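Colleagues,

For the teaching module next term, I've prepared a clean inverse folding example: a structure given as tokens, and then the sequence designed for it. I'd like students to try predicting residues themselves before seeing the answer, so please don't circulate the second half yet.
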């Protein structure tokens, strides 16, 4: 099963209207063929609107959007399509709309949408794409907010995470009857009996146990196994909830309530930050994109699944006190701004730590996953200055753009401010 097929099925069963932007190339995997297959078997059928590649999908979304039913856009990452969306995102930000965008490695183009939407999810495996598609639909229906879900199209898995149509409809019908609501105190209330109150660390009580994907008996977070996908409360940021803005905390609480519901449905963990590797590392590597997780002594890998809203306290909590160095790897091959999105988020979060315990932070480009070996991991650890390249770019022509980015003139003032604030740490 492909990730496109998995996401297409969730979008089809969750939506009142599907706006499908046709790919510009026959080589690209098509959502539409999956929808035709589903149309023959499904009991409940959404309205399917097919949009030519050159057309503006936003105008179709605006025409069909409603205050209650979910509208889903399915498209491959295409500069023209994404550019057409940007002017309309502010109008769609408070509507139940999910943008499912399939990418082939490079995240450069889709990240231009991030600042204009409340939620931005990233999936690198088929199972993750399936589960995040459910989370995105749940949040969008419950919060009446736009959600961007970016997933890798070039992945397949033998395992089939398929749920029945009846299970998905029952799961979403709870949200339609009693949507997730976040009040000004950061509390989340939903209609399925889940206690979604935000605790003092900015988390939702009742989130899953990181070891087995089940909520524990008292409905509270269990951080007992940080290496299995949860984060440790022993890091310095565990006492710094004030670093999170209340608006971000409310959005994040709604995400956790939705992901808790998905955990109960699929019986496996769903985390905004997936932590693997050493529990007391000297190096922490944040990954945005698809990278093989290598076994390197003294290294903790953190895969980012929720890019927005990304709480500073969550980032800091994932960095144990033993950490001396943080590397931020992002799968960006055509990024023309000096500083990348996740790097700035990590830098901002680390500023909340005590100066004496702040690790050094280094930016890097995540290359083609198929080219990465254990030797590349050792080489990465030995690179102590400048922007590093982990593996090789998917295309040779992209190496220069990724390694030595062109900085537009209008970025100069912003760059000077960052250099003044962070000095030699950038």
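(Answer key — instructors only)
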């Amino acid at each position: 099963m492909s990730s496109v097929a998995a996401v297409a099925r969730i979008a089809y069963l969750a939506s009142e209207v599907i706006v499908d932007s046709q790919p510009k190339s026959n080589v690209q995997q098509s959502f539409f063929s999956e929808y035709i297959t589903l149309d023959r078997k499904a009991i409940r059928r959404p309205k399917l609107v097919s949009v030519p590649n050159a057309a503006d999908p936003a105008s179709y979304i605006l025409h069909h959007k409603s205050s209650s039913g979910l509208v889903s856009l399915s498209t491959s990452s295409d500069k023209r399509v994404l550019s057409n969306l940007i002017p309309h995102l502010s109008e769609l930000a408070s509507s139940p709309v999910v943008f499912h965008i399939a990418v082939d490695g490079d995240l450069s183009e889709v990240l231009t949408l991030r600042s204009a939407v409340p939620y931005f999810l990233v999936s690198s495996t088929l199972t993750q794409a399936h589960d995040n598609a459910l989370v995105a639909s749940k949040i969008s229906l419950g919060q009446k907010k736009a959600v961007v879900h970016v997933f890798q199209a070039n992945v397949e898995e033998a395992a089939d995470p398929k749920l029945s149509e009846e299970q998905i409809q029952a799961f979403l019908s709870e949200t339609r009857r009693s949507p997730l609501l976040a009040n000004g105190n950061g509390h989340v209330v939903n209609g399925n009996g889940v206690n979604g109150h935000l605790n003092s660390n900015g988390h939702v009580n009742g989130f899953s146990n990181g070891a087995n994907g089940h909520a524990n008996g008292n409905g509270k977070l269990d951080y007992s196994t940080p290496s299995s996908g949860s984060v440790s409360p022993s890091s310095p940021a565990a006492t710094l909830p004030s670093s999170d803005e209340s608006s971000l905390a409310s959005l994040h609480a709604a995400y956790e309530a939705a992901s808790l519901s998905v955990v109960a449905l699929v019986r496996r963990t769903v985390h905004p930050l997936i932590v693997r590797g050493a529990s007391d590392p000297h190096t922490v590597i944040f990954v945005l994109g698809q990278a093989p997780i290598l076994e390197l002594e003294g290294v903790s890998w953190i895969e980012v699944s929720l890019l927005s809203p990304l709480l500073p306290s969550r980032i800091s909590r994932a960095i144990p006190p033993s950490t001396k160095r943080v590397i931020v790897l992002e799968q960006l091959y055509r990024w023309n701004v000096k500083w990348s999105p996740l790097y700035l988020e990590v830098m901002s979060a680390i500023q909340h730590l005590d100066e004496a315990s702040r690790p050094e932070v280094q930016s890097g480009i995540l290359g083609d996953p198929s080219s990465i070996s254990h030797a590349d991991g050792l080489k990465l650890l030995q690179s102590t200055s400048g922007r590093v390249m982990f593996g090789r770019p998917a295309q040779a022509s992209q190496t220069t753009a990724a390694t030595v980015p062109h900085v537009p003139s209008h970025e100069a003032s912003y760059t000077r401010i960052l250099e003044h604030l962070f000095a030699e740490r950038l």
